[in-house]
Design goal:
CATH architecture of chain A: Orthogonal Bundle
CATH architecture of the largest domain in chain B: 3-Layer(aba) Sandwich
CATH topology of chain A: MetI-like fold
Oligomer: heterodimer
Structural class of chain B: alpha/beta
Number of helices of chain A: 13
Shape of chain A: globular
Radius of gyration of chain A: 23 Å
Shape of chain B: globular
Strand content of chain B: 5-15%
Number of strands of chain B: 10
Radius of gyration of chain B: 20 Å
CATH class of the largest domain in chain B: Alpha Beta
Number of domains of chain B: 2
Distance between the termini of chain A: 22 Å
Largest sheet of chain B: 10 strands, mixed
Number of domains of chain A: 1
Helix content of chain B: 25-40%
Largest interface: A-B, 37 and 45 residues
Chain lengths: 284, 354
């Protein structure tokens, strides 16, 4: 069916307007704000300066960016390694089961993010369920500290974002033509070869989408490091939060936000290019 | 600045939304006056009470943090609100920015109910632009049944004995975080000397290695569960722990501590100052003001109200019995002005240290 130009603009209009108003405009405001000075009382002095960006490049803050990148990167990789087999298994399960299995995978989303995160505190704290369990099993030493470390933060991020990755990879695998499997096996490829040379490359867009999703959501996260890191782990999200809500240094907070947004945009762009290339490859 | 600040992450999310809204204009309203306060910091039916007593129809909006309402007020140049609850350094800033109306002693006669000490606080002697609403201090809140040593110093928190290591929490909000170190070293809580800031930063980085966690919001429940045994705490919040476990005790370390004051201010752009003053006056009425002490377990600077509450409350919650004289020995936390950047940097260095 041919869609007229008018119809196209009518269909795109609301979405584009939404993005412009609630996404592009606020980002532009943040960008502008980052070139001003903090007022002595915490407001904004409209004096042009580049100092905020110079400060953001200071080793102290750069270190926090790198650390956040490392944490988000680990979270994304671990989520991928857990999600891929799960998504693969779901897509190979009998059709009748797939919907139920997917439903179970996204079931955690039915509860609030904070509650899901607090649940880990209940499980892992010094007086928590796990330590109580160890005691029942005869462990008599000091309770084990399992909370408030970088690993707990990564655990929390992986746990919370895992369903996204499962969904992304599942949709990618389930779109594969089943004949590819058959053709590959008929031509004598082993199962491993089929996976490595046929399935994996074809599902790269799903992998990239899942990875970027977890990474982007993780690097800016401030709730999980705060709750599960117990303040020991400071990520760039916490740093930005502090600039706005305790230091009252909006311009510096804006500069940090802008750097973070740029990193996210670059990643999303790279992912879009990859997906695009893969699709064109698939069709052509 | 304020304890209620961290009541919930819902509040935090509210604060973030508030920041986004700060660029917008205040909403139009039909009420006689608009009050902004922390959620839960006054009776839920306050405006009905005020209406019955004064005839003025009021509207309440909530802010989760001082910073949030400051953002709104500076963006709107003080328009859109009539009475605002903020902590004292922020009241001082609003006054310096010229956004406040004078506190009119004729229209707010109940100012006379305040303790004499509360009428000459250093940030606003004579209550020229603010009326204090609640006050208190910061100290150590601990499980007396699980801590064998005598707790009486900031150094017990910062350089703990081996058996307390890993069972301690500290406040992460930078002013209080830094204050613990400043006080341990005998400096002022408002000290902006760079050498002192660096010295305290190093002290606090060492202390971090022996902490269970930084916790502004749930430290008292960590005490109740026994996950933590010694916490850096605001007096009012320690009371929430004491309410659940009588072995929890609060002390002010021997090196002293800070005095925090939450205040009410009337905005200069208020279109109905009579209603605003009538509201402040109503709050300062002893039986209305006593609500704060009885329900939130914060001390109020209102002599008549504290007398109405009686000594019973101080039996269960000893810090409720602190006298104004005792509070006056604490050091008022003031705005740091240009020194703020150095504090922020130091606190970031502490938070990101391994």
């Amino acid at each position: 069916m041919q869609v007229s130009r008018l119809q196209t603009s009518l269909l795109i209009g609301p979405g584009l307007g939404w993005l412009a108003l609630l996404m592009v405009l606020p980002c532009a405001l943040i960008f502008v704000l980052s070139f001003f000075e903090r007022g002595i009382y915490g407001g904004i002095d409209y004096v042009y300066t580049l100092e905020n960006f110079a400060r953001a490049a200071d080793p102290l803050y750069l270190g926090i960016f790198l650390k956040s990148g490392r944490i988000a990167g680990f979270a994304a990789l671990i989520a991928l390694f857990v999600a891929y087999p799960a998504a693969y298994a779901i897509s190979r399960a009998p059709r009748a089961w797939q919907a139920t299995l997917l439903f179970l995978a996204i079931l955690p989303f039915w509860s609030n993010y904070l509650i899901r995160t607090y649940a880990w505190i209940v499980l892992l704290n010094r007086e928590g369920l796990l330590n109580q369990g160890f005691k029942l099993l005869g462990y008599s030493g000091e309770p084990i500290n399992m909370l408030y470390s970088e690993s707990t933060v990564i655990l929390g991020l992986v746990y919370n974002y895992l369903p996204f990755v499962i969904l992304a990879i599942y949709s990618s695998i389930s779109r594969l033509d089943p004949q590819l499997w058959e053709a590959s096996e008929d031509l004598g490829a082993s199962r491993l070869q089929t996976f490595r040379r046929i399935i994996l490359p074809q599902t790269a867009p799903g992998i990239a989408a899942g990875l970027v999703f977890v990474f982007v959501l993780s690097i800016g996260n401030f709730v999980t490091p705060d709750l599960l890191g117990g303040g020991h782990v400071q990520m760039v999200g916490n740093l930005i939060y502090d600039q706005f809500l305790t230091a009252r240094d909006w311009p510096f907070g804006a500069a940090l936000s802008f750097v973070l947004i740029s990193i996210m945009m670059a990643l999303l762009f790279a992912q879009a290019v990859l997906t695009n290339r893969a699709q064109r490859g698939g069709n052509g | 600045m304020h304890n209620l600040l961290f009541r919930s992450y819902r509040g935090v999310i509210g604060a973030v939304l508030g920041l986004m809204l700060a660029f917008g204009s205040p909403q139009a309203h039909a009420a006689d006056f608009v009050v902004s306060n922390w959620d839960g910091y006054m009776p839920a039916d306050m405006m009905e009470q005020v209406k019955r007593a004064t005839g003025y129809e009021g509207e309440v909006s909530f802010h989760a943090t001082n910073e949030e309402i400051m953002g709104k007020l500076t963006a709107s140049k003080g328009a859109g609100y009539d009475v605002v609850f903020v902590s004292s350094p922020f009241a001082e800033i609003l006054n310096n920015l010229g956004l406040l109306a004078p506190m009119d002693p004729v229209k707010v006669p109940n100012l006379k109910n305040l303790y004499p000490e509360a009428r000459k606080l250093a940030y606003d002697p004579g209550n020229r632009f603010s009326a204090p609403y609640a006050w208190g201090t910061t100290g150590l809140c601990y499980r007396s049944d699980l801590v064998s040593e005598n707790i009486d110093s900031w150094n017990d928190l910062l350089q703990p004995s081996a058996d307390l290591s890993g069972k301690i929490t500290m406040l992460a909000t930078e002013r209080w975080l830094m204050a613990a170190g400043m006080l341990a070293r005998g400096y002022s809580v408002n000290d902006t000397d760079k050498k002192h800031i660096n010295e305290v930063r190093d002290l606090l980085i060492d202390a971090k290695r022996k902490l269970l966690a930084y916790d502004d919001a749930t430290f008292y429940s960590k005490l109740v569960s026994g996950e933590a045994v010694l916490t850096h705490a605001w007096d009012g919040w320690c009371n929430y722990g004491i309410a659940e476990n009588a072995n929890i005790k609060f002390i002010v370390p021997k090196e002293g501590s800070d005095l925090w004051v939450d205040t009410m201010v009337v905005m200069g752009k208020s279109k109905n100052k009579d209603a605003a003053y009538a509201f402040v006056n109503f709050v300062l009425d002893p039986k209305n003001h006593a609500w704060v002490a009885e329900n939130i377990l914060y001390k109020v600077p209102n002599k008549a109200a504290m007398e109405a509450v009686g000594a019973e409350l101080a039996k269960s919650f000893p810090n409720m019995g602190m006298t104004p004289g005792e509070l006056m020995k604490m050091e008022l936390m003031r705005d740091l002005g240009r020194g703020q950047k150095d504090y922020s940097r130091a606190s970031t260095e502490i938070m990101s240290a391994q």
